[in-house]
Amino acid sequence: MLERLYRASTKSSPEIDFDPEQGILKITGQSYPENPPAFYHDLFAWLKNYLVSAEHAVIVELHISYMNTSSTKCIMDIIYILEDAFNAGADICINWHYTARNRSMRECGEEFREELNVKFNIIPEEISQSTLR
Predict the structure, then answer these.
(1) Is 23 left (phi over 0), alpha (psi -120 to 50) or beta?
(2) pTM for the whole thing?
(3) What is the C-alpha to C-alpha distance for residues 43 and 77, in angstroms, rounded to an integer?
(4) What is the pLDDT of residues 71-103, one digit of tens each?
(5) Domain ranges of the chain
(6) Which long-range contacts (CB under 8 A, 24 or more apart) does 72-78 make?
(7) Which of 58, 72, 84, 123 is the most buried (most CB within 10 A)?
(8) Which residues, listed in sequence order, are joined to residue 120 by a DSSP beta bridge?
(9) Are 84 and 121 in contact (CB under 8 A)?
(10) CATH code for 5-132?
């Protein structure tokens, strides 16, 4: 089994946390690194490798508050890797989380979902008062 893939977030890049034992990938934060393809390269390779031998369902939790155009393409590439695995018989669910006031991220999730067969949930989240401080 592959080891956990973890990358801490920075000001311009999201946290990436893939727990292979649980089959859960979380991408959380903003995504506008200087070179998104280079930033996501390890995740692309790791994910493809993992999906070849995945023994249980894969759940993807996307909590992206902002992404630039290049990052959008990279996230779409990740989703297409998951879609290919789903079409080959893998049990995959993608959860696209957005805050209620972030209409652009909701719309982005809706656009992604239109092109897919994989289970793709769009989940609004409430903004806590502590987040607003």
Answers:
(1) left
(2) 0.90
(3) 11
(4) 999 999 999 999 999 999 999 999 999 998 899
(5) 5-132
(6) 72/108, 73/36, 74/31, 74/36, 74/37, 74/39, 74/40, 75/27, 75/31, 75/112, 76/112, 77/40, 77/44, 78/27, 78/40, 78/43, 78/44, 78/47
(7) 58
(8) 94
(9) no
(10) 3.30.750.24
